[in-house]
Amino acid sequence: MVYRKVNNAYRLSCVNGAAKEEGLSLGEALSDARARVPDVQSEEDIPEANESLLAALADWCDRYTPLVAVVGDDTLLLDISGCAHLFGGEKAMLDDCLNRLKLQGFHVSGAVADTVGAAWAVARSDGGVIAPREQRDALEPLSIELLRVEENIVTSLMRVGLTVIGDLLDRPRAPLANRFGEDLVRRLDQALGMEGEPISPRLYTPALVVERRFFEPIAREDDVVAVIQSLSENLQKELEKRQEGGRAFELVLFRVDGVVNRLAVGTSGPIRAPNLVLQLFRERLKTVGDELDAGFGYDLIRLAVLEAQCCSAAQLNLEGNSHHEDDLAELVDRLGARLGLAQVSRFLPCDEHLPEVQSALVPAATVRENALYWADVDGEREEEAPLEYPLRMLPRGEPVEAVAMVPEGPPLRFRWRKASYEISSSEGPQRIAPPWWRSAAGVRDYYRVEDREGRRFWLYREGLYGAQNEVPRWYLQGLYA
Q1: Bridge partners, residue 280, by sequence
Q2: How many Å apart are CA 446 and CA 474, to the nearest integer?
Q3: Phi/psi of residue 21, nearest 5 degrees
Q4: pLDDT tens, per residue, the chain with 481 residues
Q5: What is the distance between the alpha carbons of residues 429 and 386, in angstroms, rounded to a whole number?
Q6: Is 448 in a helix, a strand, or coil?
Q7: Structural contact between residues 3 and 45, judged by C-beta atoms closer than 8 angstroms
Q8: DSSP assignments along 315-349, one per residue
Q9: CA-CA distance, 37 to 23, in Å (whole number)?
Q10: Which of 109, 170, 162, 160 is nearest to 136 (CA)?
């Protein structure tokens, strides 16, 4: 039996068949149970472990449908619309699911019905398959407790002699709602199919899914790679029909013992070529390494497109290559598959006048090529070319103490980080000012200077003499190699 703490008292939360034969029941105090059955075996309930186990079972149920929802701490809801025929019908599908779970050591029961309420109630009684539009007959003899209403409502119904669901089916709805609450009527209508009740899948529904089932499980990595290649070719056909390409792919490996492994890769642009998809998963498999244990083998492998994007056909050149192919994008995808797309970044130009904010480091996969335009790269430069930026740029200018021969002239010496530097040569100034529609504050005069030991620095003076009340200050912006 399993017990948990309820209102500062330990009570039984789960009992097996042997415990029930000894007269133990749910909700009974742990001390009373041990007094009546001294040799009873008990374990404390661990909610976190139960949640993890239920999530693992939900992953395993993905082999039947991608629409799996977790409800409470002991229930899984599967939307099998359009999936049952793949397993030989609803009854064959239900039997296959229950038998596989029982072989894994679980005590389970299940039901198939048109409504969530009917399936919930029947699964907790005899189980089985309810024919379409026959849930009324299946619910009629069942207990009121199976309507998923609060315990106080169940107690009130039983107090007036309403013990089974059939006692409520033909009664007027308005008096029931006035006396016992609207929740009772809503649950009753949901179970009968008179009111809709959608489920909320725990995982994102893929845009496209292809899978391969095996009569004999496979475990070798070469076999898994071959299956990925085959599934990628099937995905390519479907993506071409939709004129789309995948931006995120997921490989799901279902082990015979119920363990499910998921591997996901993303791309910087839409792709559908099988060799590119396979290459990304090769990199991902190298990263996982020994963490991916095949166990006794996989009996089901699924490849899904989690996110798709419009991808029009591209004109090929004489060498058979597309003009839109980008080696850099392919490199980003490969690095992202191994390291994670969030770990691969590139600089994005920003329309700002200050040097330290003219570029931003962003994930490379999110940057479009039409955004990567840097001013004065391909066009003609002005006659007075701007000073080249140093190799090492500080995130923000650091204050320095500088001495200049004239107020607006280049510095002769400066002190930075408790060290003094004598300047032997300088070049500048290069004035950088904010746009006219902004405040005049923030005007900078930049100088490239070199000290007597050959070290070169990038300094600037912020502010203009006589233009504001504050005295201009000197800052160090960067260091040259």
Answers
A1: none
A2: 10
A3: -65, -25
A4: 888 888 888 888 888 878 888 888 888 888 888 888 888 888 888 888 888 999 999 999 999 998 999 988 889 999 998 888 989 999 999 999 999 999 988 889 999 999 999 999 999 988 899 998 888 899 999 999 898 899 899 999 999 989 999 999 888 889 889 999 899 999 999 999 888 888 888 888 888 999 999 989 999 989 999 999 999 999 999 999 998 989 889 999 999 988 999 998 888 788 889 999 999 898 888 888 767 888 889 999 999 999 888 876 655 555 555 544 456 777 777 777 777 777 787 777 777 778 877 777 777 766 655 555 554 444 444 444 455 678 888 888 899 999 988 878 899 999 999 999 999 999 988 888 887 777 656 788 999 999 999 999 999 998 887 766 678 899 999 998 7
A5: 10
A6: strand
A7: yes
A8: -B-TTS-BTT--HHHHHHHHHHHHH-GGG-EEEEE
A9: 9
A10: 170
Burial of 105 from C-beta contacts in 10 A (0-12 / 13-18 / 19+): exposed
d(CA 255, CA 298): 4
Which residue shows structure tokens 């041990």? 34
| Tokens read off for 84 | 């049952």
- Say which amino acid occupies 461: R
- Write out the two tokens for 206: 């893929």
* Cis status of the peptide bond prior to 363, with omega within 30 of 0: no
DSSP output for 212-272: EEEEEEE--HHHHHHHHHHHHHHHHHHHHHHTEEEEEEEEEEEETTS-EEEEEEEEEEEE-
Name, in order, each residue with C-beta under 8 angstroms of 35's C-beta and a sequence gap of 6 or more: none
CB 359 within 8 A of CB 348: yes
Residue 77 exposure: Cα atoms within 13 Å on the Cβ side: 22
Note the Cα 392 to chain centre separation in Å: 36
User: Facing residues of 474 across strands?
Assistant: 400, 461
**d(Cα 388, Cα 448) in Å, to the nearest integer?**
9
Give the Cα separation of 120 and 118 in Å (integer).
5
Q: Could you report how far apart the first and last alpha carbons of the chain are, in Å?
A: 72
